[in-house]
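Example 3.2
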Amino acid sequence: MALTHGRGNEFFCQKNHKAAAFADLKARIHAQEHTDTARLSLGLGLFDRALSGGFACQHVHLVTGPCDQGSASGFVLALLRRQMAVCTDQPVIWCAPDYGGRSGQLCAEGIRALGLDPGRFIFVHENHPVRLMGAFEEALQTTGIAGIVAEYAMLASKADQWSRWAQRLRRAARAGSAVGFLLGPPAPSASFESSWSVTPGTDYQDKYDWRPCWSVSLEASRTGRPHAANVIYDPLSGRLSAAVSDSAPTAASDAVYMQRHAQHRFHFQPAARQGWDDAGMMLA
């Protein structure tokens, strides 16, 4: 009887120890998940409020767009410009395949035209999608980086593999300090901090406005709510602003436009403006 009673106490103690260890692990994970982190503000009140303050650093955000358009890439570059203005001495890591595909590749002139310094970009080229995601995962764990971007191409077509990578990247981002962006065609939001869809803006029809216009939709957020709007990016100031649809500009709006841009020496031809509107960026 004494031996049986002793074994029962031993089993009971082991069970309590495992329960306590599991509870402690849950508490540490919860604390890590809910630790206040720095946020990247868009400068757009409605989007910032929908995100509870902006893009959370130490997290990965999914940004999708049409394969044959550069609107999603242009939107991410606009966000990186804001982040680079804060992290003045930190580079950006951009992971992408060697081939440009239908959306093309970033080029130095296109980056400069959007107001960013191409000298602060570190490009990692890898054609194999798993190895590319591995490089992205390793970069996410590195501190002293302003932002990290990866173009996942068709990796999201495999649901089980995509879900596993989402979990791995989430853990990796918490170990680093940068904001991460996954860029590519429409894909499941999985467990990413937020999920976005960016397409060329269609409702904004000011024929005098050469600035890129995107239709931006926040489709899911772990700490916020969905929101959508047409957004204009000004490469001169780096500001994002909500677009106002107006198919018939008045003489007053024409005068404001001419006065605002009179000090700039360069002139955008209609063809170039159309390229900005459609692609949102300059591609090689």
